[in-house]
Amino acid sequence: MTSTSGTERRAASIDFPTGSWYAVATSTSVGRQPSACRVLGKRVVVYRDSRGDAVALDDRCCHSSYPLSLGRVEGDDIRCGYSGFVYGPDGAVRSVPTQSLVPIGAHVHAYPVREQDGLIWVWPGSPGRAARREIPALGWLTSPDWTTFGDSWVVEANATLLQDNFADITHIAHLDPVAAPPVLSSQTPEIVVTVNELTVSFSRDYPASALQPWQAEILEVPADSQHAQREEGTFLSPGLWVDRWDISVDGHGEQDGTKTSYFTHAITPIDERTTAHTWRVSRNYTPSAAATGTMEPVMRDYYRSVHRALETIQRVIDDDGPRRDVTVRADAAKVAVRKLMRRLAAEEA
User: Which residues of 231-259 are buried (b: 16+ CB within 10 A; e: fewer)?
Assistant: First the structure.
């Protein structure tokens, strides 16, 4: 049955605001060697200064247009590998090899940058606004109380399609039955959606149901046991989505308790048809390497399946153009996220 909203226009893309934090790299991938990345079509070079702090600059020499990411770091500065111009962490030209005087105003843009929870975040919008917007805390990514694995991939699809995907995971039962909790194969409970000024969240409570064999193995419960489950998802910012899945274990002695998994997704638009996706799966139970060895291949295959599906959808949209897609009740969070994204883009414009 379709919802009362009927249909919603699927645009080829929804503008992503520059006034937001986007993850451009993991902490471990950034060092004294310059690293190139892109966010919202902007070329960015990231490196660490002599104190170990992250620096993010426009990745284009103001003299030669040569990428600074192909240069080298010297102390706190970075030298262009073609022109020899030296830039400080603030983007200002420090020296020019052919003359003693630096051209007045010579500089490249310096991006506000923060390092938090194992990720390097860049603010591509107006620098003065960055201090007014905090990066949501993702403490489970680095806490010793949680076991985390994941990866960073590039998807040949618009970032809006990734947002749509995470706003409704009921497709898992069809896309990857091995990864899907069996409870998703039945009619899903009513979704509860909450919209705030800058976030959208939803939740569903599922009745006691069986688990996948790999889930039961990790939780160390009988394969035929049934457990109540709860799903929560939150759009925390244009570049960040977090899902939470709780499994209530009861009547199994030491295994009893709420077993929680967080699925963290940093979504960074590279351009209108390409998105950087950093994903992490964190759990507060069974921290053994054996459990990770069971769970990680399942999740890795699932996210590969998601990426292939979204790339297929993108090709169809590119070839045939956007159209009006039918919406159902399960799309309530997706519709709310799209409305919020349009508002954020309109306010910035």
Answer: bbbbbbbbbbbbbbbbbebeeeeeeeeeb
Q: What is the dihedral of CA 97, 100, 101, 107, to 10 degrees?
A: 30
Per-domain residue ranges for the chain?
A: 22-132, 139-347
Q: Looking at the domain covering 139-347, what would its CATH class be? A: alpha beta
Q: Are 191 and 164 in contact (CB under 8 A)?
A: no
Degrees, nearest 5: CA angle 33-38-40: 155
CATH architecture designation of domain 22-132: 3-layer Sandwich (2.102)
Helix (H, G, I), strand (E, B) or coil at 75: coil
φ, ψ of residue 341 to 5 degrees: the values are: -60, -40
Q: Bridge partners of 155?
A: 275
Q: What is the pLDDT along the chain (349 residues), one digit of tens a residue?
A: 233 333 333 333 458 999 999 999 999 999 999 999 999 999 999 999 999 999 999 999 999 999 999 999 999 999 999 999 999 999 999 999 999 999 999 999 999 999 999 999 999 999 999 999 999 999 999 999 999 999 999 999 999 999 999 999 888 989 999 999 898 887 778 899 999 999 999 999 999 999 999 999 999 999 999 999 999 999 999 999 999 999 999 988 888 899 999 999 999 999 999 999 999 999 999 999 999 999 999 999 999 999 999 999 999 999 999 898 899 888 999 999 999 999 999 988 7
Q: Report the distance separating Cα 119 and Cα 272, nearest Å.
A: 23
